[in-house]
Design a protein that fits this description.
CATH class of the largest domain: Alpha Beta
Distance between the termini: 69 Å
Largest sheet: 5 strands, parallel
Number of helices: 22
Number of strands: 19
Radius of gyration: 30 Å
Strand order of the largest sheet: 4-5-6-1-7
Helix content: 40-55%
């Protein structure tokens, strides 16, 4: 049996990816394009888990003149053997292993308080100072500068030193190597997102601003910087006056193929593991993101899916991609939706589109300023894709759509969670009494009102209404709710029955869906006829119940009609 090439789920470090023989989708020409465009600072904004950390790690492995604490220099060229960048030409290869590199990832700054998040960032900075501590042996670095450096290593640095620490480290590295520095900052906006959701955003912003300004704006030791994140935070809030910043968002054509997998890369991936027959399924579930003009797949989901299929952990696709904080924004959007927003969510879940003005310079503090900002946040974080652009009244509008079934399932799950939590707080005594008393108008009106106030999906098919009615009734304290159980010659939709039999009561409900508003009465009649024809009451009569009420209920979109049987 041939040995399976390891599938890299959760592997974020390029050298580990290559040295341990994982399947690698070659994105090394990102190096060529960065050198070609010659931007001093490039900010890539992409959704979470789209390969940003792996890309940053690859850049570090290529550019870094890596020196161990004992002064030993590491040759990283072995990690690029056979990769596309090696065929790009000497004008690019001459940069390999040439520069001191500062690599800092903020993705772990997710603590519940400002103090903890600040210390987490300080710890990341400490790690880079420790990794480059060999510079302290240089006679070209003044003693005063060394003292500041050592204060960071001893965790005694004041807040000003920490705020300017990346600039301090780059200065020391330039003095030692006689070469300007490359700075790589991964997931720069995680501390801001975390701070926003935990209530200390106003404290975190000034610190991040100071850190970045000294490192990227006024740093004469800087050769090039690459920053990655999820949102393009406005220059005014973080990148104040940073005129040398090139932002590459999901709307840009440049670099579009370097984050996420292209169709050709996915085809090769599936072929490598002999599951090319899964191509259509993979496309429906994980494709659909549009970066610039390129359609790409979510790499996190694809690798997890392939691994599960190859190792027979599952036979079916499932949602692998998640981002807890952004998912909470989906939940908030649903929980606070007005009638217009509920309609927009329903349209999206039904594979429809919506048109919104684009706000690229959104900040976390702006997310709740308007509903348009929320939709923009969901777009830039990967919960929507752009299918068209329009220019109207000096404003760019995006036509947005849910990318694929994986993301659609997140919306549907959040809608279901919201509905379940909503009905737990409702009192359905009036609805139950209306069923018991045969008050069909009240039953119809109450259910219609709830449908009008609810986000719907499943294209208004019978399964949706079945789940909806069962959901409304399941939290009542008087009746047991049974559904889709065999009785007589078929399966009834819903039955409510008391625990007591001798003095108990049963309500049988059969559901139908009309093709138009005029078909509601006919649908109810068909439902009642089905109850009688298939003897849905036979098992209940056998149990000893004698007080049995039968209802035919028919739906058209959000209209409901209930009719009681004779």
């Amino acid at each position: 049996m041939n040995k399976i090439v390891p599938i890299p789920t959760g592997v974020e470090f390029y050298k580990q990816m290559i040295s341990e023989g994982y399947y690698y989708v070659d994105k090394t020409l990102l190096i060529r394009d960065l050198l070609e465009y010659k931007n001093a600072v490039t900010l890539f904004t992409r959704p979470r888990r789209f390969g940003k950390t792996l890309a940053q790690s690859m850049l570090r492995a290529f550019f870094e003149k890596e020196i161990l604490s004992d002064g030993t220099e590491i040759d990283n060229s072995v990690y690029f053997k056979g990769k596309k960048i090696m065929e790009a030409g000497e004008e690019y290869l001459k940069h390999m292993g040439r520069y001191p590199v500062i690599f800092i990832s903020f993705k772990s700054a997710k603590q519940p308080t400002y103090e903890m998040a600040y210390l987490s960032i300080v710890d990341e900075i400490f790690n880079e100072f420790d990794r480059h501590s060999y510079v302290l042996a240089s006679d070209d670095i003044a003693e005063g500068i060394k003292e500041k450096y050592i204060s960071v290593l001893k965790n005694k640095a004041d807040s000003i030193t920490i705020a300017k620490s990346i600039a301090l480290l780059s200065r020391c590295l330039e003095k030692y190597h006689k070469q300007k520095v490359i700075i790589l900052i991964d997931e720069y906006d995680v501390p801001l997102e975390n701070a926003y959701f935990n209530g200390f955003y106003e404290q975190m912003v000034p610190f991040i601003r100071s850190l970045f300004e000294s490192a990227l704006k006024t740093n004469e030791n800087l050769k090039m910087a690459v920053v990655t994140g999820c949102l393009r935070i406005s220059r005014e809030s973080i990148f104040t006056g940073l005129n040398n910043l090139k932002v590459v968002s999901v709307l840009d054509d440049s670099y579009a193929e370097y984050f996420g997998f292209t169709q050709g890369e996915v085809n090769a991936f599936l072929e490598s593991y002999n599951i090319v027959h899964k191509k259509d399924e993979v496309k429906k579930w994980y494709n659909g993101y549009i970066f610039g003009k390129s359609e790409v797949y979510n790499p996190w989901s694809i690798t997890n899916y392939v691994k599960d299929i190859v190792y027979k952990n599952t036979e079916f696709p499932k949602p692998y991609w998640s981002n807890t904080s952004s998912n909470s924004i989906v939940r908030e959007l649903i929980e606070n939706a007005d009638e217009v927003t509920r309609g927009e969510i329903e349209e999206l879940i039904d594979w429809g589109t919506m048109e919104k003005p684009v706000h690229e310079d959104i900040t976390y503090g702006d997310v709740h300023a308007s509903r348009d900002n929320l939709w923009n946040f969901l777009f830039f974080t990967g919960y929507l894709k752009v299918v068209d652009k329009k220019f109207k009244s000096d404003t760019i509008y995006l036509v947005l759509k849910i990318p694929n079934r994986e993301i659609r399932s997140i919306y549907k799950n959040k809608v279901t969670e919201w509905f379940d939590s909503k009905i737990k707080t409702e009192d359905f005594q009036e609805l139950l009494e209306a069923f018991e008393e045969g008050n069909c108008d009240t039953v119809s009106d109450i259910i219609t009102d709830y449908l009008m106030d609810t986000i719907s999906f499943y294209d208004y098919k019978e399964d949706y209404y079945h789940g909806f009615i069962a959901g409304l009734l399941k939290h009542n304290k008087k009746y047991l709710v049974k559904s889709n159980r065999e009785s007589g010659l078929g399966r009834y939709d819903i039955v409510l029955k008391t625990r007591r039999i001798r003095k108990g009561k049963v309500i049988i409900i059969e559901l139908k869906v009309a093709r138009n508003i005029n078909g509601l009465k006919q649908g109810c009649a068909e439902a009642l006829e089905q109850i009688e024809r298939l003897h849905y009451d036979s098992d209940l009569l056998s149990e000893g119940y004698t007080d049995i009420v039968k209802y035919g209920i028919c739906f058209y979109k959000k209209e409901c009609l209930a009719v009681k049987g004779e």
